[in-house]
Design brief:
There is one protein chain. The protein is an alpha/beta fold and 371 residues long. It folds into two domains: 105 residues, Orthogonal Bundle (Arc Repressor Mutant, subunit A); 242 residues, Vaccinia Virus protein VP39 (Rossmann fold, 3-Layer(aba) Sandwich), CATH 3.40.50. The strands form two sheets. The chain has a seven-stranded mixed beta sheet, sandwiched between helices. Strands 1-2 form a two-stranded antiparallel ribbon. The protein is globular, with a radius of gyration of 24 Å. InterPro entries: Methyltranfer_dom (IPR025714), SAM-binding_MTase (IPR053173), SAM-dependent_MTases_sf (IPR029063), WH_DNA-bd_sf (IPR036390), WHD_Rv2258c (IPR048711). Keywords: Methyltransferase, Transferase. It comes from Natronocella acetinitrilica.
């Protein structure tokens, strides 16, 4: 037997072991994906919220309580029982959601991870469109994601809104005091404007403006602001692709972007417009995805695979659909620093918040050069 043949035979057990391990991983992933789809349905239908108190309930009572079809509720309970999310008492044919589970997939706890499960079915709806892009290039426009703004509003409600006043705004020394005194604030890519509305309520002496490309999001934001009787806030449907050319100079003391730069058609143009719009003492506060700009440095990222999938299925492709750069969700901290500097910011600080494993928070200024 030659040395080469021996080497192949010796490697076969190693290969078989690796295949077995990967097969177990794939089977587990399929099972967990099914669980996440059911969590999404449970979140959207109100089933999970209805079970949040932990009390045992049968399928008929749960269906009646949520005004849903009992046959579908019963099958959903079967799926959640098989997944170990819901605990069944077979003697009484009742089901309960344990408190430890309810704390993570309902609003009874600090963070409702059921919100993020919604991304999977939403992104699956455009798989055929994305496959077409793989073969022919181009992108999938925002209009193909009718629920995206609603899900992102729930997402930001847990990462941004809950930490806005206590953790995020204080990243800029003295900013809360300036907001109380009265400054002009712009949020680019404001979505449904929840962060701006919260600030407008808390700081009535400041004035707030929100730009977003989505007509649905701007309409929702305007309605909410009107219902709250806010007079110090306005929302404008606006494409920021040429913001470097259309921005009015020195208009705002504070400009924010929350998870908005990486899916812009022309992110550098947006950043240059932001720089142009700031007053001399102004500051730019940006939240964006925490990652590195190189694939191999994201191997141990806790959400790396999911965020790259988000990039392909939404963030990168909506930029390419506008003839844009397609920067992508995982553009990374290194690329962010590069773009902030190209936009004209010379003082760039990055912060991490303990409650948020997904995002970086950048504080950007222009420092005057000594004469």
């Amino acid at each position: 037997m030659s040395q080469g043949t021996a080497s192949i035979e010796e490697s076969e057990p190693v290969l078989a072991e690796a295949m077995d391990a990967f097969e177990r991983r794939l089977v587990q992933a399929l099972n967990e994906a099914g669980m996440l789809l059911m969590v999404s349905l449970g979140h959207r239908s109100g089933l999970l919220a209805s079970m949040a108190n932990g009390a045992p309930v049968d399928s008929e009572s749960l269906a009646e309580r949520t005004s849903l079809n009992e046959r579908y509720v019963r099958e959903w309970l079967g799926a959640m029982t098989a997944a170990g999310v819901v605990i069944m008492d077979p003697q009484r044919a009742t089901y309960r959601l344990p408190p430890a589970h309810a704390a993570l997939i309902t609003d009874s706890g600090g963070t409702n991870l059921g919100v993020y499960a919604q991304f999977l079915p939403m992104l699956g709806q455009v798989e055929d469109d994305i496959l077409h892009c793989f073969r022919h290039g181009g992108g999938v426009p925002y209009e193909r994601y009718p629920r995206f703004q609603a899900i992102m509003a729930e997402d930001s409600g847990q990462t941004v809104l809950a930490a806005l006043f206590e953790h995020i705004l204080p990243l800029v020394p003295g900013l809360p005091t300036r907001l109380e005194t009265g400054i002009r604030v712009l949020d680019v890519g404001c979505g449904r404007g929840k962060a701006l509305i919260m600030m407008a309520e808390r700081y009535p002496r400041s004035r707030f403006t929100g730009y977003d490309l989505s007509e649905e999001a701007i309409s929702w934001a305007r309605t909410q602001a009107q219902q709250k009787g806010l007079k110090n806030i306005e929302f404008e449907m606006r494409d920021a692709s040429n913001f470097d050319e259309t921005a009015i100079p020195r208009c705002f003391e504070l400009i924010t972007t929350f998870d908005a730069i990486h899916d812009q058609a022309h992110p550098l143009a947006v950043l240059r417009g932001i720089r142009h719009s700031l007053t001399d003492d102004g500051v730019y506060l940006a939240q964006d995805i925490r990652a590195h700009s190189h694939h191999h440095e994201n191997i141990n990222h806790p959400l790396g695979a999911f965020l790259y999938a988000m990039s392909i299925m939404h963030c990168m492709t909506v930029s390419l659909a506008q003839g844009g750069e397609g920067l992508g969700t995982m553009w990374g901290r290194e690329k962010a620093f590069e773009y902030f500097r190209k936009a004209g910011f010379s003082d760039i600080q990055v912060h991490e918040l303990a409650h948020d494993i997904q995002n970086d928070y950048f504080v950007c200024r222009v420092m005057e050069m000594p004469s």
